[in-house]
Design goal:
3 strands, mainly alpha, 13 helices
Length: about 350
C-alpha cells in the first residue's frame, strides 16, 4: 500500500517477546470491543451495559465460570489436536469430523452395549470413540505420506462425511423411540462425575492432563525433537535418518485421537446421547485457538477458556438484551478477526519506505 509517496511494508521482527504477544492480544480485544460497540449502537443497545453484563456472566458467578469451562473442554481438545499436527506443518482441518467420530464411537457403544457393567462399558466407549476418530486421521495421513495428497482438502471433506454419516444413523438405526433424530440415552452409570454441583464434569482434568503430556512430549522428548526437525524441513529430517512417512501417519492418527477424546467427553459428560448438534463447530473454533496459542499446549488451555467465554457471553446477550442471533454472530466474528489480525504484529512491524 502507498500513502503520500511511502510504501507501508510489514517486516519480520528479529525476536519476539511475551510482552509483545500480550500487547497484540490486548490491542485486538480493545479493537473488537470498539467495533462491536458500533454494532450494538446501531441496534439501539448500550454497549457498555452489554459488555459489563457479559463480563459478569462469565466471571461473576460459579455458574458462569463452570459453564465457560464446560464449553472450553471440547474446544481445547480440538485445538490440541490441530496443534499436534501443526508441529510437522500438517494442517489438520478435520478436527470437527474427528470430534464427531469420537462421539459416534462412544454413543454407539453406550447404546448397543448398555447391558455391560460400567467398569467394562466406560473403557469400551473410550476405546470405540478413539478408534472411530483414528480412522479419520489415518486416511489423510496415508494419502499425504504416500501420495503427497493435500491434507487440507482431505481432512475438510472428511468433516462432511463424518457429520452426514452421523445424521444417517440418527435418522435410521439409532433413531430414538419418540421418532426424533436422537439416540437413546447411555446408561446412568457411565455418566462422568460432576464438579461443584454444576454441569462441569471431571473430563476437564482429562484435557488438562493431555495438554501437560503433549507439552513435555513436544519440548522434552527425543521424538518431540525429531518432529520439530521434521516440521522445519522434510529434507533435513530424511538426511538425519528420521522416518518422514511413518511420522506423518502417526502424528495424524494421534491428532485425530485427541479430537475424538473431545467427542467422547461430550457424550458421556454432557449430552449423554447422540444428537445432530453435538459438534457445534468446536473443531473449527479449535483451529483459531491453536493459531492464537502458537500450538503451545499449555497456552491452548487458557486461550480455549477465553474463547469459550465469548460463547457464554453471546448466550447472555441473547437472554438479557433479546439481541438476535445475527448480531451475536457478527460480534463473535469481529472478535475473532480482530484478535487474529492483531496477532500478526507479534512477529511483524510496520515500516514506512519511500517509493
Amino acid at each position: 500500500m502507498i500513502i503520500f509517496g511511502y510504501y507501508i511494508v510489514l517486516k519480520k521482527k528479529l525476536r519476539t517477546s511475551q510482552s509483545s504477544r500480550f500487547f497484540a492480544l490486548f490491542s485486538g480485544v480493545v479493537l473488537s470491543l470498539i467495533l462491536s460497540g458500533f454494532i450494538f449502537l446501531l441496534n439501539k443497545t448500550n454497549p457498555f451495559e452489554v459488555f459489563t453484563s457479559s463480563f459478569f456472566a462469565i466471571f461473576g458467578s460459579l455458574y458462569g465460570i463452570t459453564e465457560t469451562f464446560l464449553i472450553a473442554i471440547p474446544i481445547a481438545a480440538c485445538a490440541l489436536a490441530v496443534g499436534v499436527a501443526a508441529m510437522i506443518k500438517i494442517w489438520n482441518i478435520g478436527a470437527e469430523g474427528q470430534f464427531v467420530a469420537g462421539a459416534l464411537g462412544a454413543g454407539i457403544s453406550g447404546v448397543y452395549f448398555s447391558f455391560l457393567p460400567s467398569g467394562l462399558l466406560i473403557p469400551l466407549m473410550f476405546t470405540s470413540g478413539i478408534l472411530f476418530s483414528m480412522i479419520l486421521g489415518v486416511i489423510p495421513g496415508i494419502l499425504k505420506a504416500m501420495l503427497n495428497v493435500n491434507e487440507i482438502l482431505v481432512t475438510l471433506m472428511l468433516n462432511y462425511m463424518a457429520t452426514l454419516f452421523m445424521l444417517f444413523l440418527l435418522y435410521g438405526p439409532l433413531k430414538g423411540l419418540d421418532n426424533f433424530p436422537y439416540s437413546k440415552y447411555i446408561p446412568d452409570n457411565t455418566f462422568l462425575p460432576l464438579l461443584f454441583s454444576s454441569r462441569l464434569h471431571v473430563g476437564v482434568f482429562i484435557v488438562i492432563i493431555i495438554a501437560i503430556i503433549l507439552y513435555f512430549f513436544m519440548k522434552k522428548s527425543i521424538w518431540g525433537y525429531e518432529l520439530r526437525v521434521l516440521g522445519e524441513s522434510y529434507k533435513a529430517a530424511r538426511y538425519a535418518g528420521i522416518g518422514v512417512k511413518r511420522n506423518i501417519i502417526l502424528i495424524m492418527v494421534i491428532s485425530a485421537a485427541i479430537a475424538g477424546v473431545g467427542g467422547i467427553l461430550e457424550v458421556i459428560g454432557v449430552q449423554h446421547r447422540l444428537q445432530p448438534s453435538i459438534a457445534q463447530g468446536y473443531g473449527f473454533t479449535g483451529i483459531i485457538v491453536s493459531w492464537l496459542s502458537k500450538n503451545n499446549p499449555l497456552t491452548t488451555l487458557w486461550v480455549s477458556f477465553l474463547i469459550a467465554g465469548l460463547f457464554v457471553s453471546g448466550s447472555d446477550m441473547q437472554i438479557s438484551y433479546s439481541l438476535p442471533t445475527s448480531i451475536i454472530k457478527v460480534f463473535q466474528g469481529i472478535v475473532f478477526l480482530s484478535i487474529l489480525a492483531s496477532d500478526i504484529f507479534t512477529d511483524y512491524y510496520i515500516s514506512l519506505e519511500k517509493k
